[in-house]
Amino acid sequence: MVTIIKTSHSIRSIFNYNENKVKAGVAECISAGNYPVDVDKMSDALKLNRFIKQIELNENAKRNSVHISLNFDPSENHSKEKLIAIADMYMEKIGFEKQPYLVYQHYDAGHPHLHVVTINIERDGKRIDLHHLGIRKSEPARKEIEELFGLVKAEGRKKKEEFILQPIAVGKIQYGRIETKKAISNVLNAVLNQYKYASLPELNAVLKQYNVLADRGSENSKIFLSKGLVYRILNEQGKPIGVPIKASDFYSKSTLKFLEDKFKRNEVRRIPDKIRLKNAIDIALLREQSISTNELAKLLEKEGIHTVFRKSEEGLLYGITYVDHKTKSVFNGSSLGKEYSAKAIQERCGLKVTGVEKSNKMSKKNPSKEFILNNMQQQKDTLTIPDLVTVLDVLIQAEYSSDYLPYQLKKKGRKKRKGLSDN
């Protein structure tokens, strides 16, 4: 279990945040502590006024509101009764057992979690000290609760055990607004802030892997002209299905303006990741004298790089986007350099040729040894032993050098000097 504590001067904003989630159908108020009636019999006004009346007992307190989230491992599926018991024990352990509090279960993320809304003004007007509340009380409480309830522990988890985002199971979606919104929201929460993309096509190169599309509509459509944006679920053929959801309807407010700000920041953030991606492509091409674009994509997949080919209706390749899942960076081919664009990659992968023509083609399609070594020098601090072995293995293969000529042929081509004979 992971706990996050935030304090505020406005209980109203915290309360409205959670109640708006309830109205949107992605949360539920499942419990209330120290209220006069059961939670299912309370109006919004009663819930909020209970907090406000007690806060008014101490008008000097600048921060009087507390917002806590209790986050569980994606593999855990606890009953409401168990979640309520966990929340109640947590509030007791941190010294808030006598305070009024509301417990909300949220359904809009890739893992189960609760939000607890409370205040730190006691019934006599005294203020509960919030200084280092996390270290002093929350952490010991978390560890004890993990043991008592048999929860997945927040500490000591290996990277490979962490949550991995899976594509939306389109066959299981009921195409109503709530189900669609919940499914898309899970993907957006995981992708928008983790990946470094600098355009809408680059973002969609990632989203489409999870059966989601950010759609501006056609150029003459109302949504496009008003600079709007909707998110849609895609079927197995990559076609939009179900109910489109406006970007402004999501809590993350992932609108076109939000994304355009991301594009500008990501242009700078992703610059250091170019070298790894370019080297991976160059090395994949160096290993094979003739290779198809699909074979290139399979080699890059082994390095954690997903290649998206954009083709016309006639099947002609006009664009390539690379999604590097290791660095979380996305690049259109031309953004890496003209030698990584769709046209250049086709030429470098290209034609099955023979003899002298093949030697000339290879010298054109593959970077020089000096080029590869220079790139290695630039990223010397990040290269692993397997990387070095792969590069060196390629560089020592003579057939990749355009000026290579077997020793026997060099002897036959030796010129005689004037005035001298073989005797």
Describe the SSE topology.
Layout: E1 2-8, H1 11-23, E2 27-33, H2 44-55, E3 65-71, H3 80-93, E4 101-106, E5 113-119, H4 133-149, H5 177-191, H6 200-207, E6 212-215, H7 222-225, E7 230-234, E8 240-246, H8 256-269, H9 274-287, H10 293-301, E9 305-311, E10 317-324, E11 329-332, H11 333-336, H12 342-349, H13 355-365, H14 369-378, H15 385-395, H16 407-412
Antiparallel strand pairs: 1-3, 2-4, 3-5, 4-5, 6-7, 7-8, 9-10, 10-11
Helix pairs in contact: 1-2, 3-4, 9-14, 12-13
List the keywords:
single chain, 423 residues, alpha+beta, 5-stranded antiparallel sheet, 3-stranded antiparallel sheet, 11 strands, 40% helix, 16% strand, elongated
Could you give a quick summary of the protein structure above?
The protein is 40% helix and 16% strand. It has 423 residues and is an alpha+beta fold.
Structure description:
The chain has helices at residues 11-23, 44-55, 80-93, 133-149, 177-191, 200-207, 222-225, 256-269, 274-287, 293-301, 333-336, 342-349, 355-365, 369-378, 385-395, 407-412, and strands spanning 2-8, 27-33, 65-71, 101-106, 113-119, 212-215, 230-234, 240-246, 305-311, 317-324, 329-332. The chain is built from 16 helices and eleven strands. The N and C termini lie far apart (90 Å). It has a five-stranded antiparallel beta sheet, sandwiched between helices. Strands 6-7-8 form a three-stranded antiparallel beta sheet. By secondary structure, the protein is α+β, with helices and mostly antiparallel strands. Residues 158-163, 351-365 and 394-413 have low confidence and may be disordered.
